[in-house]
Write a structure and sequence with these properties.
It is found in: Cell membrane. InterPro entries: BPD_transp_1_N, MetI-like, MetI-like_sf. This is ABC transporter permease. Helices cover about 80% and strands about 0% of the residues. By secondary structure, it is mostly helical. The chain has 2 domains: about 70 residues, no CATH class; about 160 residues, MetI-like fold (Orthogonal Bundle). The chain is flat, with a radius of gyration of 24 Å.
């Protein structure tokens, strides 16, 4: 079991290192951030001064090694524009994104999983077709388009919900629903497929022959055995909620790390962009690591095969 965990953790560390390296190289080779911050009319001596001040005059390999050393000590550098520690800037915005992401995930799980189970139990019926139609619609509808539609309907037409900002539960309604739509549709589809496969297994007929009630067969026999594919989708979507929040936070002016990333990219604030890329990548990688560990707990055969 210990070896299983160590292998997964090692893969996680290597993945994060590759993401950090790729982001560092791309950002450093895509243009001069000093010129972007000071403007094209800045004097050459001013550009050279700030390049030396921020260490951008050093060779790329030296900048990279310095950044790796900083990260190893828990530092992500200083913002080129705000002159503040990147970790402090991210810490200010992260709670808003966590609030939005967890609320959206709860909505998606509460709607998507039961909907998929109901669709599987009513296979081929009107309810099954209706649920799957809605699920495909939610899965395919772009977040930015749905967000704009909700603003037009509930903010501009009905005037019952605020269109942007934060502070009350009303501000959270539209962004969380918009972010949850894709995940709910995905969960409904995969839950239905997994449940249909399990419902045909011999042990389900054996449970019915032993006199187990319908609800007991579904809750204690079918659903636990269908959990692994569902856990996979939950893990993938949980990681993608942070990345998906970039669009949603921009549409609804939600003050989270997604909106911060858009602003930092437009301002060429390298340190902030690198820190945010690492946070987003770490969220997705840790979600996948959690899924792998849950695999080992749900099915010991997977754990043994991995070791």
């Amino acid at each position: 079991m210990l070896r299983f965990w160590l292998i997964k953790l090692l893969r996680t560390v290597v993945t994060l290192w590759l993401v950090v390296t790729f982001a560092f190289i791309v950002l450093r080779t895509s243009g001069d951030p000093v010129v972007a911050l000071l403007g094209a009319d800045a004097r050459p001596d001013e550009v050279e001064y700030f390049r030396r001040l921020w260490g951008l005059d050093q060779p790329l390999i030296v900048q990279y090694l310095n950044y790796i050393v900083q990260m190893a000590t828990g530092q992500f550098g200083m913002s080129l524009r705000d002159h503040r520690a990147v970790i402090d800037i991210i810490a200010e915005r992260l709670p808003a994104t966590v609030e939005l992401g967890l609320t959206a995930f709860a909505i998606a799980a509460i709607i998507g999983i039961p909907a998929g189970i109901i669709a599987a139990l009513r296979r081929g019926g009107v309810l099954d077709r209706l649920i799957m139609t809605i699920a495909v619609f939610g899965f395919a509808l772009p977040n930015f388009f749905l967000g704009i539609l909700m603003i037009l309907l509930f903010s501009l037409t009905l005037r019952i919900l605020p269109s942007s900002g934060t502070g009350t539960w009303q501000h959270l309604v539209m962004p969380s629903i918009t972010l949850a739509t894709f995940t709910a549709g995905s969960l409904a589809r995969f839950t239905r497929s997994s449940m249909l496969e399990v419902l045909e297994k011999p042990y389900m007929r054996a449970a019915a022959a032993k006199g187990a009630s319908f609800s007991r067969r579904v809750l204690f026999h079918a659903f636990p055995n269908a959990a692994i594919p569902i856990v996979t989708v939950i893990g993938l979507n949980l990681g993608q909620l942070v990345a998906g929040a970039i669009v949603v936070e921009t549409v609804f002016a939600w003050p989270g790390i997604g909106r911060l990333l858009v602003v930092a990219v437009s301002q060429r604030d390298l340190a902030v962009v690198q820190g945010l890329v690492l946070v987003i990548a770490a969220t997705m990688v840790m979600a996948n690591l959690l899924v792998d560990l849950l695999y080992g707990l749900l099915d010991p055969r997977i754990r043994e095969a991995s070791t």
